[in-house]
Amino acid sequence: MSNEEKNDKQQQLDQFRAYDHGKKLTTNQGLKMAEDEFSLKAGERGPTLMEDFHFREKMTHFDHERIPERVVHARGYAAHGEFQVYESMKEYTKAGFLQDPSIKTPVFVRFSTVAGSKGSFDTARDIRGFATKFYTEEGNYDLVGNNAPVFFVQDGIKFPDFVHAVKPEPHNEMPQAQSAHDTFWDFVANNQETAHAVMWHISDRAIPRSYRMMEGFGVHTFRFINEQGKISFVKFHWKPVLGVHSLVWDEAQKIGGKNPDFHRQDLYDSIENGDYPEFELGVQIIDEEDEFNFDFDILDPTKLWPEEDVPVKLIGKMTLNRNVDNVFAETEQVAFHPGHVVPGIDFSNDPLLQGRLFSYTDTQLIRLGGPNFHELPINRPVCPFHNNQRDGYGRQTINQGQTSYYKNYLANNTPTPASPEEGGYEHVHEKVEGRKVRSRSESFKEHFSQATLFWNSMSEPEKQHIIDAFSFELGKVQNKSIRQQIVDMFSNVSMSLAKEFAKNIGADIPSGEDTLITKSSPALSQENSIKTPATRKTGVILMDGFEEDVKRIIDSLNSEGVQTEIISNRLGLKRGVNGIELEADHTFETADPVLFDALYVAGGKDINEASLKKIQYYTDETFAHYKTIGATHEGKEWLDKHKLSGNSGVITEDDWKVFTRQFIEAITEHRHWSRKLTG
């Protein structure tokens, strides 16, 4: 190519890049728009209006951007199960599946990451999706949530912007499944309503140990309606029976390379082993007349309801007890929608929820090829359905008769709408009035107090992890101005937090004092979560010539619900004293310490230098990730040699019964953070 041709090509590129620069925003029809952050509502706190052509154009374009992979939540895994309510909830709602404790409602749950493509890895730093489909006798009810109770934006019209920012940057399609890049943090800095959700995203909550050990939240405010018409506002929670636990960042990154299917394999194996994941459904309820009695707007999706102010009432349990038969037919074709409700559950005027009520149907239309996605087996309700909708792509029902309209004479006016007394769905009779405006309620405009609440609620190790996470993420940001903007923004959350990570990213350290907000919510700290050894996976390093009590220890661990897998220099039977035999599940090469919750170095006399180096790698990695290490016999000698004995969470008792008890207690703690203090 000649220099002249190169110059012409460069001019074309420059013109293309500058096409939007300095221009006014318009619709795809060329209409200039005066506002691009707020959907059109009936009053500042009213519902979004259907006539909002700009919102619909923007959201429709966004929903159709990927074929056929989901735009967000592409990487997911799912399981079947059942739900039972503990006691009738008729005081609050007439929803049928929340009335009778003897009835088991089938469910299908899909867990997912948000930002990565279908081929990304499970343990990326990301919010996790937690979507549940209840197959009730009144129709399907979808509780479509995340493992964080708040979201990054307040209005549905900004959702495409947020996702565009967190996705791989369009000029080079990098980085995959990460938020550690310029466009995401540029969006954060210039949309400060993101502050609270960013704190969740940058915390340990964004790298869960497993799907079985993370909370789920409905995010939005919904309404309960009982038979008498009494209305309450409600938020939904899923509480894992095993407690809420996370990985550490170095561990999460290494797992992504060692086993990118770590979370899905954990879910699959647990169900196959009969260790069925369990979650309790909880609700926070606020009487309609108390809507304005809080120091935040209860409809704001960037705010949570502190559990100490509005307690969570546990109302039922979900058990996941069957894996899918076909990932594509079930996990990929399942279609969730927050608008799939049953009598007794209705929507609030949360503007993000209002946007989702349009967006989800639109998404399914393009992803599943047309309007009949409800007829796919995984989406089909268990109750009969009758209407005058016909034809379209993927139609499976063969309708009979000559009428497909209402009202009619030829079919005796059927199918006929059902009255509320007959179970017909009736929306809340809410008075709505106000000027048509693109605006945000004044009560939505404070963005930092609950981000500070979250920070105040963290334990010291969790706070350090947040500082480290900001330092890592912003260390990947190339634009120095964006890094500084984030420091300045989060000095409104906590001056001490901002000062700490500012040092690590080369930004100017802000001056000033911490905010006067001292309120905390202990429920937000994982350190206060349930702790149990059940289903914790322990790697057992075992060589030939092991002692007799090793088998007793392994059997005792298994009897307490701890899972054990034997690691050795080669597969096959390992022979101990007195003819005892145990079979190795892994070699040092086919396993890795990051794939286990704890390590038991059991010993064995048949050892060589190569194996000792592998054992050192396993113990050093486990120790560095604050996990429990136990050792007996020759294993104690190996730990003593590398100066690991005597540290927190390192168990080396001689009596096998005492060892087993202390080892299980240490596993129960999940991590031993004091190691960092002792070096």
What secondary-structure arrangement, pairings included, does this model have?
Blueprint: H1 3-17, E1 40-42, H2 53-63, E2 76-85, E3 105-113, E4 128-136, E5 139-146, H3 159-166, H4 182-190, H5 195-201, E6 216-217, E7 222-225, E8 231-240, H6 249-258, H7 262-272, E9 278-287, E10 313-323, H8 327-332, E11 345-347, H9 351-367, E12 436-438, H10 449-457, H11 460-475, H12 480-490, H13 495-504, E13 537-542, H14 549-559, E14 563-568, E15 572-575, E16 581-584, E17 586-587, E18 598-603, H15 609-624, E19 628-631, H16 634-641, E20 650-651, H17 656-668, H18 675-678
Parallel strand pairs: 13-14, 13-18, 14-17, 18-19, 19-20
Antiparallel strand pairs: 1-12, 2-3, 2-10, 3-4, 4-5, 6-8, 7-8, 7-11, 8-9, 9-10, 15-16
Helix pairs in contact: 2-9, 3-4, 4-12, 5-10, 11-13, 12-13, 14-17
Function: Decomposes hydrogen peroxide into water and oxygen; serves to protect cells from the toxic effects of hydrogen peroxide.
Family: Belongs to the catalase family. HPII subfamily.
Keywords: Heme, Hydrogen peroxide, Iron, Metal-binding, Oxidoreductase, Peroxidase
